[in-house]
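We read letters as residues; the fold follows as tokens. A sample entry reads:
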Amino acid sequence: MPNTPASKFSSLQGYGTAFAVSTAMVFFLGLDARAEDQVAPASSAGFQGLPPIGDRTLPPPSRMKRGRIVRDEGGALSLVENSARELRICPPEDTGSCQFSDLASALAAAYPGDTLVLAPGIHPSGANVSVDYVTVRGEPGAHLKGAAVEGKGALVISGAGVTVEGLECSEISVRDRNGACIRLEAPDLTVRNVNFHDNDQGILVGGGASGTLLVEKSRFERNGRGGRAHGLYVSSDIDEFVFTGNVVVSTKDEGHGVKSRAKKTFIAGNIIAGLEARDSRAIDISNGGEVVIRGNVLQKGPNSSNWQMIGVALEKRTHARNRTEIEDNLFIFDTVTGADGVIGSLQRWGQSLGLTAQKGVAVRSKSPEPVSFVRNILVGGKAIGVPADPEENKRYNDRRSAGLKDFPTLPTKAAQPTD
């Protein structure tokens, strides 16, 4: 091939669209044309004043759009985007029914807007999800297992606007004791209907993250390690953290169920329960911020290492704006060591007579602003922990007086117990 400007830059066509303009090359940032796309020659009119090629910064491949460059009747160029694709990945033992045998290979061929579908079975290798606006979706039975990459996690999210849904993910552990099924290092992530269990951590938000993290309809079970890994951990890089319709149970090894440092945290309609695990707080809002905790079932079991259900701004740094609303939640303190049988009955009897001290505090806060605590129901426990109008909240001595089933049964929603 002759060493023309066009041939000199042909290797960059996957990163930006190249057009031959006389003997000069002009790149249209954000467009991506493949070698087979045919582009009619263009005149140099309208391209005056552009900086030389060497002075232009191309965006990374993940931010390119996929499509064909076309010219309309007036001579203007535009991009006709191709339809999003589904790229299917099978487990290693499935040798014929998928395009790809591992997630990393599929991502190498993916464009923004594509969906990467994991077929049923155990997938032993994870990947760095570096392509923007892709969806990683599991079919029923798809399971990422023991698949940590980069010493971080199974899915290291470095592309913006990614969605992860429908997966099972387990046994993710790394030397630093904070291996995660999902490690977020980019803006804006949606997680939906994912089963995280038996990992150092379900989700960890690391450096490079920003924007909004939405987690909904997912399950976190038996995650936590060494008191430094939790059900999920959200760093202060996140502007808004939304956590709705999830189940977090049996967080272990003194981890918190949900730990958030986000500027805004919205936790609503979840079940967060320690059950018999040796957990810490159900919810830890380390640096305060704008916080709403609404309509959750929050339970603390007899083996917990921390009798506080919620912590607010208990670490030194706090956000510039602080407001905390805790409302319409059901707090259950199952703090007797023998929850069932004769021993449990004796302990409950002793508590009801004041012979045995109740344990459990609903909220501990060091926020610079007051905490609003209204329309909550407390079952067991010693104290609310923040100023609250007793007429605005309801308290029961134990499950039986509240009309709840015995431990370890959990209500499915924060409804008013039966009087």
The first strand starts at residue 17 and ends at 21. The chain is about 5% helix and 35% strand. Residues 1-51 have pLDDT under 50 and may be disordered.
